Each structure stands twice: as C-alpha cells, then as structure tokens.
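RECORD TYPE: protein structure
NAME: O-succinylhomoserine sulfhydrylase
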Amino acid sequence: MKKETIALHAGYEKDEQKTMAVPIYMTTAYAFDSAEHAANLFALKELGNIYTRIGNPTTDVFEKRFAALEGGVAALATSSGMAAINYSILNLCETGDNIIAANQLYGGTVTLFTHTLKRLGIEARMFDVHKPELIEKLIDEKTKAIFFESITNPSIDVPDFEKIVAIAKKHNILTIVDNTVATPILCNPIEYGVDVVVHSTSKYTTGQGLALGGIIVEAESAKEKIKNNSRYNHFNEPDASYHGLVYSDTPFPPFILRARLSLLRDMGSAPSPFNSWLFIQGLEHLNLRIKQHSQSALEIAKWLKNHPKVKRVNYPLLEGDKNYENAKKYLKGGASGLLSFEVESFEEAKKIADSVKIFSRVVNIGDSKSIITHPASTTHQQLSAEELELAGVSEGLIRLSIGLEVVEDLIADLEQAME
Ligand SMILES: *Cc1c(COP(=O)(O)O)cnc(C)c1O
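PREDICTED:
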C-alpha cells in the first residue's frame, strides 16, 4: 500500500458502532473482567488497556498509523516533540554515557542536550552535518546514539544519511533522526537504515497549529542492534522494575516496549487522546498539504533569489543550494515549507518582519498560515554576534514557514514589505 493510502486507513478496525471516524476514547482507566485478567495484562500475557498513561485506544490508532507511514514496527506517542526526543535518549543512556549529535538542531533539542542532559551526566558530542566523516573519532564504548534531523530547523540543511548510518552500523550504535520538518511523506529515514525516528507532531502533522504532540517510531533494525549488544545491556538483562523482564527477549519491538513500560510509566509525558485524534485528522491530508507547502516554498525561494535586496536564499531544492544533492537524493517530491533568506542588516530584516500583513510574526513552523521569524531579534536574541555565527544565524536572516495561502498573495505581501 502507498503512503497516501496508509495515512487514511492503517491501524483502525471499525468497532460494532461502525464509525467511519476514529472515536475519541476520553478515559483515564479501563475495567478488568477479573483479577486474573488484570494480572495477565500486567504480565503482558495478554495485551489490553490498563491506564491511559501507558496506552489508549485512540492513541493506539495514531501510533499504528504513524509507524506504518514511517515503515517502522511500533510507535509511542508523547505529549510533545521534546518529550519524544528526551525519551529517545533516556531510553538508551545513563550517567556516564554519551551521544553524538548534529550541530544543526532545533533550539529546544540543543538546550536539552547541552544543559539538561548534561546535568544528568549524559554528554552530547557535536558534529557538523556537512562533515560526517568527523563522527568516527567522537565514538567510544559509552556512545549510545547518533542523533540528527532530516531537514534541520532552523538552519535548513539536509545531512548525508547514508554516510552517517554507515559509521553507526560499523560501531553497532543506534541512529535517531528527528523527521519533523520533512514529515513521513517527503522522507522515510528508516529506508536509509535509521533505527529510530522521532517527530514533533505539533507541526505539519496537525498542520494547523492546533495541538502539541510527539511520537517515537522504531525500525525493525533497532532490535538487531540492541540484541546481545553490550552497549545496551539494560535491554538484554532482567529489568528489576518489571518482574525481571528482558526487553530484547519478548516478541515485541524492544525500544518502544521499554519506552512505554518504563519511561511513560515512571515519567508520564503521555498524550491526551483528544490530541491523538487531532493528529489522526491531520494525517488524512498531510500528503496533499506538504506537497503544496513545498511547491509554494520553492516558488518563493526562486522569487527571493532574484530580488535585489536579498543576499542569499536557503532552500534545499533550490539549484545551487549547498544541500541540493542530498535533498535530491533523500527527499521525495519537496523540501517542506521552511526557507530562510538574508538581507543586508538587522534593521532591514526587522523592518520586513514588521511590515508583512499576511505572514504572522510567530515562533512556530508547519502551520497552514504563513509565519515569519527574525531570529536575531527573537529566538536568538540572547546570543552574541559570535554565537550567532556559530548557529548559522546572521543578523539579517529571516526564516519563513510557507503556509497554504495562494502563493501570489504571499509574494505580493513580501514585495510590499521589502520596498
Ligand atoms: C518544534 C520542534 C521540536 C519540539 O517539538 P514540540 O512539540 O514543540 O515539543 C523538535 N524538533 C523539531 C525539528 C521541531 O521543529
């Protein structure tokens, strides 16, 4: 089945009410038939609902559908994208361990890795996505994951997946990719050998800026890497907190099983069933939306490139962009609605952001309404000129998230703002 069809049907069996739309199971807990039934559920002898922090029937449809869309074997939805990213690392690391992560990452992920996880004794060793050959010398026996984004936010780079995955395979280390910006429609990292995919579903999945959510997807390859691998002893030895369960010995995908039974149980960033339902609605037309976002963004990128006030345009599928070859290879049918461009000065960029009428000044992406951000005066305000340069954010940089408005209207809006 093609992805466009999967997005409409996977994971939902109509119950006796035969509802076409997936029902919202707004409940905290579920009744057991008997004490024995309860005992079997807790012991995983039988699968079923126990408590919504661990699982919910509406969320289950969303998880199954998303796993199918990414080509994975299981998924776990969380209350936000940051929760999904945090769990994907905590599922592998303890104090003294390290991960290798791209320099070019979402701001919240950077602070999670370099401040919050650091306080827990987990070290992030950073690499430039344009120099994957430098990863190898960062690896040691305590390295538990290599983490990068498929289209980076906000720098809009496309890494060379195959080069990174080859290094990870050689050392038997799991790769984790944040596929938020590309969406499962434009890119399936699992096809290139990635083991775990994470998303903020707050962006293109809902598509209308309606709700916060995240999801972790496990590829079949994760179990092969985890099983009997001394890097991942906690998957191969009895878990005292779950009656001595050995995650890699069960018939279930071990990464998601442990994230659910251990992390969700103990840390609790569970999604609302209502939000899961919103994401199911979003997936039904994600395919149509992301292609339109991408087509409009490419048109605007081309228009900006010819504008006399524009010094540089960053869009991976724009010919001449430094990511063009990787984008052609790894992205299918578009590069999303995210683009950025540079004008001469801080003042000029600020004036443009202040003068647009259709674009909203918002720090978000992936909404059906177009968004403009001037990082130097907002998200990156606290950084020094030097730090801005390291982050690839110049004072005159403007980021756009192109929505679903008619592209001529968006160009006219930019044109009047840039006069
Ligand atoms: C927004 C975003 C996140 C964080 O997701 P939330 O749902 O806001 O917690 C993570 N990664 C990327 C690439 C994002 O754009």
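COMMENT: The CA atoms of residues 8 and 284 lie 5 Å apart.
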